Amino acid sequence: MKKKISLALSVGVLLTTLSPVQTLAESNSTAIISSSSIDIDKYIPKIKAIFQISDDYDNFRTNRYRREDIIELSWSSRDKGEINVSIDSEGNILRYYNWKHNMNRDEKVYRFPKINKEEGEKIARDLIKRISPEIAGKIEIIDNPERYVMYDGYNLEGYTYNFTRTENKVPVNDEIINVMVDGQSGEVVSLYSHGQKDLKFPSKEGIISEDEAKELYKGKVGLELVYKLRGVDNEFERYLAYNITNTDKTIDAKTKEIISTSQKYYYPLDRYSLYEKGLESVSSEDERKLINSKSIISKEDASRKIVDTFNLGDGYEIYTSQLEKVREDDQYIWEVMITKYRGNGSSTTGAAVDAKTGEIIDFSDPGSWNEADNGKIKYSKEELLRKAKDFVQKNSPEKYKEIEYIESVDVDPYEENKIYQFIFIRKLNDIKVENSGFRVMISGVTGNIVDYSYSWDDSEFPLAEDIIGEDKAKEIIFDGKELELEYQGENEDKENIKLVYDFKDKHLVVDAKTGEIIDDKKEFSDKYSNKAYKDIGNSFAKNQIEKLQESIILFKGEDFKPKSEITQKDFLKLLVQTKGMFYIWDDDDYLYEVLAEENIVSNEEKNPGGKVTREEAIKYIVRAFGQEQSGNLGDIYRIDYNDADQIDSSLRGHVAIAKGLGIISGEGNFRPKDNLRRDEAAVLIYNILNRK
After folding, report:
1. N or C: at which end does the chain have fewer Cβ atoms within 10 angstroms?
2. Is-above-0.70 flag for pTM?
3. Beta bridge partners of 240
4. CA-to-CA distance for 227 and 458, rounded, in angstroms?
5. 188 backbone dihedrals φ, ψ, rounded to 5°
6. 611 strand-pairing partners
7. Domain residue ranges in the chain
């Protein structure tokens, strides 16, 4: 359940959360790096000055990443939190994170930012200038990050800015600086810099025109017919489409050659069949019935399957298992948590087992990274590929008959710890099926499987009949589209920079039956981007609604329906966003699980399609602030509404607290039993975020 919520958190936070793996030496107040050649002492004064790290941060330590040339410096304070700065061997700042902004996040209810986006951008640029003055004048903000990521979520915590480096007024691919600025204090929360120093950039002299490059590209890049999924959230449709799969190919602007510099195509293997239908917990009584009737394996059998299959020995413990059911389906899944104990510490990951077939659905070894850190490569890629094939065949023999191995990019973010990734895609009617297949990741040091997952879609797929040809699809996909000039490094040698023309709309696909261009990114953006509501011109809440649209997701469509009574689930979707949880999925059960965990709504109060009275809305708001206990002392509160006697006695305290917080104003009638309208709900949410 929490997977869905976490996906929509700040992009800036996600980009900067790269955890170190080893603390090298530590005392109460400092740590000393004994195995690194980096002389950190000469960089510390500059770093502290740039980020204004005061002496109040009196606990200092250092951590080494798996790569020897990256060191994390950490300053912490019991009262203020922790500041982390990562540097390379030359003292270049790669990452920064200020952890004090995440303290007590679960109890926090946000406010509107005190600074605007333009002010935040200036703060971000000023920091970049202090860190890298040589490129500060060459960076451009990416105005449309949607072209680089699927969804840059709303964020009440602050503003996230993506900058790209330019040379000769040409963007440098993969040279990105991401900065997040706190919307309240104006402080930089995080910085992530990705790029290389001392690169040589070819001049623009003698390059071919974009038109010539486009003709070359169209002639040399092919399309592939694949089964794809179309849709947003849990509304998916299976269809046949043509898309570009050799996405790494670009046109050298000087030599006219087609070369490999861009990102290689990645066949998705997401478990959309589960996200589409959702999971629900199984009661203990139903679990016993299923096990006794031999309909599913027991939790002990599921745990034993994990232990035996992956040879988990000393230090491993499976400490919890939970049975879940796929809604509207007869599929049951054991969710298993695995812990690896190491010295005084531990790490935990999860696994899933099909409770009916015993097939392992996914697995991640919590002890794999540490074990392979200091070892040497013992296995070739070919040996590990055979191991991956054998594993898939043994675990899922019937599915193995329908898959094909796809050459993919090795997963090796730390360079010294070789992890090989093997992708196997399902083929149906000799056509690849996206989101159906297997992913196996194996350590080249230990030969052990460190990560494994599969996704399989048993839905009906359209036959490859009455479809357009590849040439027609290519004509459609390139019509009116442009290539962009960009500096990119060769995939085999990223320091060898080429000036290339790249087709930036490679994510577009063509429906093989209708010839329609499908743009998943646009469909996602259209569904959740702010649109001007047509029916709020005369609403008393017009200004509040428009202000809210800058920070949270409201209602779909072009009509706000201000006078309509709001449903419980729609009101609660607005309320959870004030706590930084940007819930955008159309899955009521997941939403209410979150609300129950946050103690905002109990299971007994769940009524998604029901109306919300004005006093009930206040009850949920006060709970979001964590003040339920004091709110139940209703008799000690004085309420000055004319109809105060109509307020439920158990909610009088809630109403008084809400008034004290400035969420409701108070004179005249409160109308506690009236159903809350959409415009009134907008004003309540606005007042929460606009409180002093």
Report:
1. C
2. yes
3. 227
4. 12
5. -75, 125
6. 567
7. 2-194, 210-268+463-523, 528-689
Rounded distance, CA 251 to CA 36, Å?
41
Cα dihedral angle (62, 63, 67, 68), rounded to 10 degrees?
40
Contact yes or no for 552/574 (Cβ under 8 A): yes
Spatial CA neighbour of 62 closest among 19, 24, 100: 24
CA–CA distance from 164 to each of 142, 149, 176, 500, 596 (Å)? 7, 14, 5, 16, 42
Per the DSSP assignment, residues forming a β-bridge with 419 are 443
d(CA 71, CA 25): 13
pLDDT tens-digit map of 47-75: 999 999 999 999 999 987 655 578 999 99
Q: Amino acid identity of 41?
A: D
d(CA 373, CA 76): 27
Helix, strand or coil for residue 505?
A: coil
DSSP state of 152: -
Cα–Cα dist 251/261, whole Å: 9
Task: Please state the separation of Cα 292 from the chain's center in Å.
Answer: 40
C-alpha to C-alpha distances, 502 to 251, 258, 261, 519, nearest whole angstrom = 7, 10, 9, 18
Sign of CA dihedral 385, 386, 391, 397: positive
Interacting residues of 219 by C-beta distance below 8 A, sequence separation 6+: none
Average pLDDT of the segment spanning 186-213: 93
Measure the CA–CA gap between 136 and 145, rounded to whole angstroms: 20
DSSP string for 97-125: EEGGGGTTGGG------SS-HHHHHHHHH
Sequence-distant (≥ 6) Cβ neighbours of residue 639 within 8 angstroms:
647, 652, 655, 656, 659, 666, 670
Across-strand partners of 86? 72, 95
* CA-wise closest residue to 102 among 209, 208, 17: 17
Mean local confidence (pLDDT), 614-639: 81
The DSSP bridge pattern shows strands 419-428 and 431-443 to be antiparallel
Q: Bridge partners of 372? A: none
Instruction: Evaluate if residue 328 carries a pLDDT over 80.
Output: no
The Cα 518–Cα 510 span in angstroms is 6
